[in-house]
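Help!! Second protein's tokens look totally different from the first
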Amino acid sequence: RDPVEKGDLRCAGCERQLAEGIAFENDKDGQENGPIFCADCRETTLGPPCGNCCEPAAWPDALLAGDSWWHRWCLVCSESDCNAPLEDEYFVHDGKLFCEHHNMLRTAQLCGQCEKPVNEGIKALDRVWHKGCLKCAVTGKGITPGEFFWHDQRVLAASEQDKAAPPCAGCGAPALSERLYALGRLFHRKCFVCSHCRAEIGGRRFVEHDGEPYLEGCFHK
């Protein structure tokens, strides 16, 4: 190709400003918008430095990926034990290039059961799960979304609810959450109330009388 006049550009080889000079396009493979060189660098470097080996990446073996040019054989997954070619597809993570598999390992959410990356799964209890991992911790059977609950860091089927925790001393229902121990018994927080005024005691001071709790103000009335 004949020399072409360029505007305010810099040589991809020596980075010399080409505003008033003559530049050449390295167009061995006919691609448009290839790197621009001064007359000297076109013959000596034949391309910008490769993002991997730093040697000149010449056409037709130069590929643009991310912010760098690469030899086709240098454009591989950054995972040390992978080196899968990325000529057709790549993913950028923390400035490095990865194949689809290793990109998923870095970006995917982890399963609430096996703690391995989840590509496709179920979202429940503010977590994600592989379909095969969403099982009742007691029965080992699969669980239908909406028919389970979270208790003591475990997923349990709704049918196991009555067995999952001892009954509340106040209402008799399983004390699964928002619970406290007082007077040697287990209560839902909302069920631990003053025996006189029936107000929720919570973290307030109370007095025990005949095995029942009283707020201090009520006990001294």
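Here's the second one for comparison:
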Amino acid sequence: MAARALEFGVTLRRPGGTVWKSTSANRLLLYAYQKGGQNAQQNLLTELFRAHHEKEEDMKIF
């Protein structure tokens, strides 16, 4: 999977074993869509994806 992701310029890191609830992130994505449409939602989704999968940031802050 990591090799396939690299073909699209995405570096996947192995998670530290913690699984976060995504409810807040999903609400934030809905809000972005309601305020700015699909482009705003996609931009936010891309940043959330990078934060989680590339930077291994703590997703429970969202």
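Reply: Different proteins will give different token patterns, so don't panic. The two ends are 26 Å apart (CA to CA).
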